[in-house]
Design goal:
Number of strands: 3
Number of domains: 2
Helix content: 25-40%
Number of helices: 3
Radius of gyration: 24 Å
Strand order of the largest sheet: 1-2-3
Shape: elongated
Amino acid sequence: MECKYCGGICVKDGTQSNGRQRYECKSCHRKQQALYSYNAYQKGINDEIVTLTKEGVGIRSTARILDISPTTLLSRIVQIAHTISRPPVINQRTYDMDEIKALYKESPNTSE
């Protein structure tokens, strides 16, 4: 089995409390299972969370759609948010902005 963290080789290392085979990576020494029964551990779940969040689906609805706990979903959203980095902004450079709305009020002291 290949390690999902570092790509190394995993060997058998006992069983989990649920009876499933546990594996340990020879290089990073992290333990994992070959198959997880809980949907929160499926590959690509974070991408689905991002997609549903972008679509404006609520927390409870997203948890129901993905069949995971709302608490787990919230912790995953926070985890994903911490991985987002700010884009670099360079001084003295022009940036184009789309769909910016600004309120402009004329002052009463302006003469026309």
